[in-house]
Amino acid sequence: MNLHTTMTSNTALSETQIAQFTRDGFLVFRGMADQATCEHMLAVATRQLQEAAQPLEFEAELGYAGAPSSLEAEGGRTVRRLRDAYHRDVCFHDWAENPRIVDKVRQLVNEPVCLTLAHHNCVMTKHPQYGTATGWHRDIRYWSFTQPDLICVWLALGEETSDNGGLRFIPGSHRLQIPRDQLDDLLFLRPEHPANQALFEQGQALELHQGDVVFFHSLLFHAAGVNTSSMVKKSVAFAYHGCSNQPLPNTRSSASADIRLSN
Ligand SMILES: O=C(O)CCC(=O)C(=O)O
């Protein structure tokens, strides 16, 4: 596996790291969140899952292949996202505003940083039985901004491997122009399209351990499999952008709060 690793980070990004992000579309920081922080977030997320604390997104609502056919079907209440993590608990709020994240994003976007609450802003879960795989996509499909440049910051609260539905990335794919016919109506790369096969072959599994954080560009193609383990996988995901990159008026992106986090 050729996915580079960045050391534990309390410091500013180096020129090399910024160049890596520009080239590959992602950066991994090992052990950026300590064990106590992750265990606390896990406990909060586990309790809120048990309580079915709203707002939730269900697998049945997403309707990906293999999802329960309705909320009433067997497994129909399988949660995909604990939405609005920012307002769920102070631990998620504080993580979203953590200066170690904001300072790095500030360097990558080279201007003041805003946090969008329009999408991501969640604890992502992947359940063993009814959690579904996610096809190759770019996260920009979730947003409408003047520029397609947001950065997702994904924290692994536990192990993430290809066995429990860990992320897969196509390094450098944020720089590719993809003809529209290679994408389906929901902007996933069509699995059967001949021109996509070479892209799929470049996909690399990302192994994350508890406390590891990956920053990735909203144009980076990524995917994730199903969870064949017996434990629910939980990750925290927030998305940031340069404050000059504004949500387009009258879109879901402009309907949610956008929080300025730096100068
Ligand atoms: O965990 C997954 O299945 C993929 C998550 C993801 O990439 C997404 O929801 O956009």
Automatic annotation (TrEMBL):
InterPro entries: Phytyl_CoA_dOase-like (IPR008775). The keyword Oxidoreductase applies. Its cofactor is Fe(2+). GO terms for molecular function: 2-oxoglutarate-dependent dioxygenase activity; iron ion binding. It holds the Pfam family PhyH. The keyword rRNA processing does not apply. Keywords: Dioxygenase, Oxidoreductase. This is Phytanoyl-CoA dioxygenase.
